[in-house]
Task: inverse folding
C-alpha cells in the first residue's frame, strides 16, 4: 500500500454503513470481520422479521428503520446520511473481510492520505473447490463522507463517486448462503408496469435478471436494446455480448453465438473468456488448428486483476492449457499436450484430470520413444 498512500498525521476514521433485511444467518459473521477496524457501525433495516436487529444490537446502537420502497439506492443513501466519521465503508450482510484483507485494511486505515477521496477494493465472487478465486471485480468501497457521494439505481445500484482515487489489492469476499431469487426481477417488472423508461444500465441489469431466470428470449431482447443505446459502460457492453452468446447457446444458434463473441472485440481487445469460447466452438467441431489458435491467445493475455469488469480466472490460467492438452493430444503431438497439461497443473495440481492426462500422455510418449529405438 505504501507506494500509493502517503503517511497521514493520524489514522482516518471510518463509518461502516449497511442496509439489511432478514440477515440473521450472515450478519454476525460480517460484523465480526470488521468491528475492530471501523469507528462506527450504521445499520439501516428495511423490514426484518427475524433476529437481524437483535443480533446487530450486539455490535452497535445505531440501528435505523427505513420503509422499503423498492429502491436500494434510496436505502443506501439514507444509511450514508447517518454516518459521522471521515470515511464511509459499505458492505452487504453476506460479505466478509478475510484475515489477510482485514490486516491490509488496518494498514490502509493508518496510512491513507486524506487527499484520497475514493478507495476501491477487489470483490471476490466465486471460488473453486480448492478455495482459489475464480471470479472477481473491483468496487468503490471507501469514500470520503464530506464529498456527499450518492447511490444511483433502484436495483443493482452503483455508487457515483469520482475524485482522487486509490486502487488497492484489499478484497471483500462474498459468502452468500442463499438469496431471494425473484426479488430483483419483480422490482424491475413492477417498474415496467408503471411505464418507467429504463436507463441503459437498467436495461442491462434487467436482462441479467431475465437470463438468470432462464427467460432467454426476453433476455436477448433487453441485451440488444441495451447495446443499441450505445451508452453502456464498456464492461457492461462486453458482459452483454457474453450473455447474448450464452442465451443463443441455449437455442443451439451457433451463428448468433459467434456473432456476439466477435462483436465483443469491438469494445476492447479480446478477453480470455471470449477466446476460450471460440476455442471451445472450434474444438467441438474438430477444427483443431483454429481451436489451438484461440486457446493459445487466451494463455498469452494478461490477467486483468485490477479490472473494473468481471475477471474470469480459469479462462486466463488453467482452462486454456488443459484444452490445449486435449487439442494437441488429438493432433498426435503428445509432447506439446504434456507440456500444456503441466502448465495447467501449476494452477490446479490436485485436479483429477491432470493426473489422468499425465498418465495417458506418459504412456504415449513412452510408446513413441520405443518406436524411435
Result:
Amino acid at each position: 500500500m505504501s507506494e500509493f498512500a502517503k503517511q497521514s498525521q493520524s489514522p482516518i476514521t471510518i463509518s461502516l454503513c449497511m442496509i439489511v433485511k432478514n440477515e440473521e444467518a450472515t450478519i454476525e459473521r460480517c460484523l465480526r470481520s470488521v468491528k475492530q477496524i471501523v469507528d462506527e457501525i450504521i445499520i439501516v433495516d428495511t423490514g426484518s422479521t427475524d433476529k437481524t436487529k437483535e443480533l446487530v444490537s450486539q455490535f452497535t446502537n445505531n440501528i435505523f428503520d427505513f420503509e422499503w420502497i423498492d429502491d436500494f439506492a434510496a436505502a443506501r443513501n439514507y444509511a450514508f446520511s447517518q454516518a459521522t466519521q471521515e470515511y464511509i465503508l459499505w458492505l452487504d450482510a453476506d460479505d466478509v473481510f478475510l484475515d489477510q484483507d482485514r490486516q491490509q485494511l488496518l494498514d490502509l486505515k493508518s496510512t491513507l492520505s486524506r487527499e484520497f477521496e475514493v478507495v476501491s477494493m477487489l470483490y471476490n465472487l466465486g471460488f473453486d473447490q480448492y478455495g482459489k478465486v475464480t471470479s472477481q471485480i473491483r468496487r468503490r468501497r471507501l469514500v470520503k463522507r464530506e464529498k456527499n457521494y450518492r447511490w444511483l439505481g433502484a436495483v443493482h445500484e452503483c455508487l457515483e463517486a469520482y475524485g482522487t482515487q486509490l486502487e488497492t489489492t484489499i478484497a471483500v469476499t462474498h459468502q452468500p448462503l442463499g438469496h431471494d431469487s425473484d426479488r430483483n426481477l419483480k422490482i424491475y417488472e413492477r417498474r415496467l408496469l408503471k411505464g418507467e423508461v429504463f436507463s441503459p444500465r437498467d436495461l442491462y441489469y434487467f436482462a441479467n435478471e431475465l437470463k438468470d431466470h432462464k427467460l432467454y428470449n426476453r433476455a436477448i431482447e433487453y441485451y440488444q436494446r441495451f447495446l443499441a443505446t450505445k451508452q453502456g459502460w464498456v464492461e457492461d457492453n462486453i458482459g452483454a455480448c457474453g450473455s447474448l452468446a450464452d442465451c443463443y447457446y441455449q437455442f443451439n444458434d451457433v451463428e448468433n453465438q459467434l456473432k456476439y463473441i466477435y462483436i465483443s472485440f469491438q469494445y476492447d481487445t479480446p478477453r480470455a473468456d471470449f477466446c476460450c469460447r471460440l476455442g471451445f466452438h472450434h474444438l467441438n467441431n474438430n477444427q483443431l488448428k483454429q481451436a489451438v489458435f484461440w486457446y493459445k491467445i487466451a494463455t498469452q493475455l494478461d490477467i486483468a486483476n485490477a479490472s473494473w469488469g468481471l475477471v474470469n480466472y480459469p479462462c486466463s490460467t488453467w482452462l486454456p492449457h488443459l484444452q490445449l492438452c486435449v487439442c494437441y493430444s488429438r493432433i498426435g503431438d503428445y509432447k506439446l499436450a504434456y507440456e500444456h497439461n503441466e502448465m495447467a497443473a501449476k494452477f490446479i495440481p490436485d485436479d483429477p484430470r491432470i493426473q489422468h492426462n499425465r498418465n495417458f500422455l506418459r504412456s504415449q510418449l513412452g510408446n513413441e520413444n520405443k518406436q524411435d529405438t
In short: The domain at 14-174 is CATH 3.90.550.10 (Spore Coat Polysaccharide Biosynthesis Protein SpsA; Chain A).
